[in-house]
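[step 3/7] inverse_fold.run input=structure_tokens len=332
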């Protein structure tokens, strides 16, 4: 009887180990260990045995049940792990997909424009500089010769950051503060451009954004004249748009340049685009940065990059440049 029990248990654990699915394993569990199993039949036969034989057969039956139950548990753990792996594989996301025939993405039109203009100016020997978007009053206003009560400091134009002394820290309203940082950090000659993001506390519409981009240009050297300023603007306009484009200067006022002008670009069809401001760097600004205005002179200009890019690419609403609509972005 004991041999039969061992034989049955060995055959049963083989079948259990070979169960292919959790359902099959559950059926085997009921068949081999349930009330109607072969082993249960031995239990009923034990009634006719003497005390010693009962003990031995009982021990063999217990050992067999334990071995089979352990085999069921082991196989269940294996099948569970296989099921989990299959589920993970089925739910896996392929993040490496690249659509055939095209790149997975590309730079935003504004970034492309910055890189294009950097290429133009670097080709002329200019360096590219950057400054922080969160600025202090000194760099954004005071060092640029803004009087203490200049209207551009008014709350309507400037986002103030709640940090330090009142109205001391701002989101830069233009890229001109980077001029100050460049002059503070290096002695002339200086030939630099400074592209970057700027902030104005203004309502947005099709031609105005509250967060937009400017490109600043600064030249400081001996003998720099207004002619160099006009020639540089004319040169980059033609390099960016093509030979049919021209520019003009109109008298204007900026605290950090004297004389100052605004510059407009003329499209090949003759119409004008107002683009930016410019002028000869004010002697006070040079002095604020430790540069002797008797020895050095310079020019500066700054303009809206978003407007420049929109004009070239026929974008009629600047707000589109801040959108995440892939149908718009994909065009460039
Ligand atoms: N920072 C001026 C603005 O945002 C533009 C500007 C005017 C820049 C004159 C200059 C400049 O460098 O010389 O309106």
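[step 3/7] decode complete -> sequence:
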């Amino acid at each position: 009887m004991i041999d039969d029990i061992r034989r049955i248990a060995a055959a049963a654990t083989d079948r259990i180990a070979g169960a292919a699915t959790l359902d099959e394993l559950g059926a085997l569990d009921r068949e081999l260990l349930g009330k109607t199993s072969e082993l249960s039949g031995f239990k009923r036969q034990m009634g006719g045995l003497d005390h010693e034989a009962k003990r031995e057969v009982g021990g063999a039956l217990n050992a067999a049940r334990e071995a089979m139950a352990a085999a069921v548990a082991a196989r269940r753990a294996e099948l569970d792990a296989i099921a989990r792996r299959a589920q993970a594989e089925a739910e896996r996301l392929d993040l490496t997909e690249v659509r055939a025939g095209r790149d997975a993405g590309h730079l935003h039109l504004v970034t492309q424009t910055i890189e294009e203009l950097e290429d133009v100016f670097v080709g002329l020997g200019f360096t590219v500089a950057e400054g922080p978007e969160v600025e202090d009053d000194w760099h954004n206003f005071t060092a640029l010769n803004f009087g203490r009560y200049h209207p551009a400091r008014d709350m309507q134009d400037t986002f103030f950051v709640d940090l330090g002394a009142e109205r001391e820290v701002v989101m830069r309203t233009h890229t001109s503060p980077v001029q100050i940082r460049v002059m503070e950090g290096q002695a002339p000659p200086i030939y630099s451009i400074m592209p970057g993001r700027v902030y104005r506390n203004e309502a947005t519409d099709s031609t105005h954004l509250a967060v937009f981009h400017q490109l600043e240009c600064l030249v400081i050297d001996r003998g720099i004249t207004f002619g160099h300023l006009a020639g540089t603007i004319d040169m980059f306009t033609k390099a960016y748009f093509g030979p049919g484009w021209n520019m003009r200067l109109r008298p204007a006022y900026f605290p950090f340049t004297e004389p100052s002008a605004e510059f407009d670009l003329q499209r090949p069809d003759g119409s004008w685009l107002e683009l930016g401001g410019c002028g000869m760097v004010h002697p006070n600004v040079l002095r604020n940065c430790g540069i002797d205005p008797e020895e050095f002179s310079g020019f500066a200009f700054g303009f809206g990059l978003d407007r420049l890019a929109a004009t070239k690419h026929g974008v009629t609403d600047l707000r589109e440049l801040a959108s995440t609509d892939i149908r718009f972005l994909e065009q460039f």
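[step 4/7] annotate
The chain has two domains: 2-91, 109-329.
The chain is about 40% helix and 20% strand.
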